[in-house]
Amino acid sequence: MVSAFGSRQDLVLENLALRQQLLALHAKRPRRRLSAVQKLFWVMLRSLWSAWKKPLILVTPGTVVGWHRAGFRLYWKWLSRTRRAGGRKSVSKEIRALIFRMAAENPSWGAPRIHGELLKLGFDLSEPTVSRWLRRALRRPDPLQRWLTFLRNHREGIAAMDFFTVPTLTFGVLYCFFVIGHDRRKILCFNVTRTPNALWIAQQMREAWPYMPAHRFLLFDRDSKFGDDVVSCAKNLGSEPVRTAFRSPWQNGVAERWVGSCRRDLLDHVIVLNERHLKRLMAEYISYYHEDRTHLGLAKDTPAGRPVAIRSPGNRIHSFSRLDGLHHRYAVAA
Predict the structure, then answer these.
(1) In the listed set 48, 77, 106, which residue is the last one of a domain according to the structure?
(2) Dist. CA 14–CA 16, nearest whole Å
(3) Per residue in 182-223, pLDDT tens?
(4) Residue 168: left if φ>0, alpha if ψ -120 to 50, beta else—which one?
């Protein structure tokens, strides 16, 4: 009765909706699935008829809405591919990588500095574009990298001195004193004594710089042996004495690292007989350390500078004993 007095348009649309569902039910398929044309019919019917939910039986209204949203995404995806590109010029991967590299290598640079460098390199882009990409760059430089940069800029003017002990065969204790330069990790002075005192240390410091001016800074710890006489001697040599903090050996890391290398390479493998024996061993080790042993802090070079051999396919490699066979040096035979 209600349908008889309804509008003809609603009746036609309802008949079409029911007919489409009957066709889907009579389709000979393993499963009753709606085709793409039938899905498009329901999407169009939803936009043309307000009472489209009444004759819907096979699927829920939410499914029809999902079809419409999927079609909307596909339409705009196709439109964005086919239409002519406009707006800002896209920034290439090369420029983005260069911006991130400049930001990482120069922590204090901002967008104006980086933009100026890019202009000098021939890249045509605006400063706001650089600023926008700069926000995505990592702006937290490694503290260790900053410390290494500081050391590289000042290491030529820094030297350090320290003591370490060596037990003997007769359970005595020998004190080894050394001065090391930070620039090439070279041992400037080394000596051994049983009774270290301030006057003996001052004499060793004079022997470390006999014909050349001393380094600008001289690092040493707060050992009682480094008293006022040692400080006065350092100032007379033209160096500024710098004491490390209490219980902070890492502040004199270059000297501590050399002590560790000396123990691992030599002293952990021998038993020292007396003072004369230790001086002979240490003289050989310092010669090996300066001329043969490569160093990580010097880009795999030696403190004295070791040339790179030119090897031909027919040349043989010979080994030479160092420190009575504890270590060896290798060279190309002529």
Answers:
(1) 77
(2) 5
(3) 999 999 999 999 999 999 999 999 999 998 899 999 999 999
(4) beta
